[in-house]
Amino acid sequence: MKQSLVFMLALLSVSAIHAQKYFTKAGNIAFFSDTALEKIEAHNYKATSVIDLTSGQMEFAVLIKAFQFEKALMQEHFNENYMESDKFPKATFKGEIQNLSDINFKKDGDYTAKIKGKLTIHGVTKDIETTGTFNVKSGKISASSVFNVLVADYGIKIPTVVKDNVAKEVKIEVNIDYEELKG
Amino acid sequence: MKNILIIIGVLAVAGGIGAYMLYNKPHQNMEKAKAAFEMSAESLFSEYETDESAADAKYLDQIVQVQGQVKEVTKENGIVSVSLEAGGLMGGVNCELDELTKHARTDFQEGETVQFKCLCTGMLMDVVLVRCVEQQ
User: What does the pLDDT read at residue A4?
Assistant: First the structure.
């Protein structure tokens, strides 16, 4: 009897560890290029992300072709000329929360997370460090982050004709509402 | 001489109008667009699961008409997405309704069979289709 109780407890704790993963398939990633000549923005509402609250590891993936622009021509140039999205259909991020112990996912509040990892865009992988905010509210976890990316770092060539229209540094905004991964 | 100036002027204006129209050219009209492929959500998903890069080569940027059973409908940030059952444990076919089209309806019942014409953008956990319009 005692043994089975221990076994039950062990099983419960294992399932508790399992429940520490959260995910989404409907994350919002947007980017903004702002120059004196032109403001460009594009939105993607189909980013996936998984986060493991126990280890602090997190992953993001987004399909380049699912970014939508106001102007069709820009979307076309973005896909065909700059991002070559036929060749590189995805952008990904794999990283880790550096200050996991500062974040209490069980208690409501806003927590600043230091995040470090590898960002892959246009087939080029770079180490990045940024901060993000986790919001915990009645068991729901959401995350947001804003950071800048240098277009040239990822081997993206902007033709001279439009070099004043496209910013050298693009602002990326991430907004995610996570759901618990039950399994 | 005067004629040449007039011709240059006319060409410049025409060029300007052309450039302006190109700059502002509209997004593809999804209601009128013709589907390159017609298939079930299940077979699109299984093609992607079997060989993603082959499926990308075939379907990326193509207009695909898929048929399937509604698994889930989500409405967030004004974006309506319909997940179709495709036999996968975690994944399926996700159809994001077109923001530029006036839809006859944006409410769908779980389990009902629907048909969407969409643009294929590739696969993450789901095969992600955007700019979808419902087909009867």
Answer: 57
Measured between CB atoms, does A45 come within 8 Å of chain B?
yes
Amino acid A7: pLDDT: 54
If contacts are CB pairs under 8 Å, which of residues 9-28 in chain B contact chain A? 22-28
Q: Please give the full DSSP string across B22-77, using - where no structure is assigned.
A: HHTPPPP-TTTPPPSEEEEHHHHHHHHHH-HHHHHHHHTT-EEEEEEEEEEEEEET
Q: What is the pLDDT of residues B62-96, one digit of tens each?
A: 999 999 999 999 998 889 999 999 988 888 999 99
Structure tokens at A73: 């021509």
B76 and A26 within 8 Å at the Cβ level: the answer is yes
- With CB atoms and an 8 Å threshold, state whether A26 touches B125: no
Q: Which residue of A has its CA nearest to B24?
A: A71
Nearest-CA distance B97 → chain A (Å): 11
A48-72 confidence digits (pLDDT tens): 999 999 999 999 999 999 999 999 9
A50 vs A3, residue with greater confidence: A50
CB distance A89 to B122 below 8 Å: yes
* CA dihedral over B106, B110, B111, B117, signed as positive or negative: positive
Q: Do B23 and A65 touch (CB under 8 A)?
A: no
pLDDT at A2 over 80: no
pLDDT band at A8 (very low <50, low <70, confident <90, very high): low
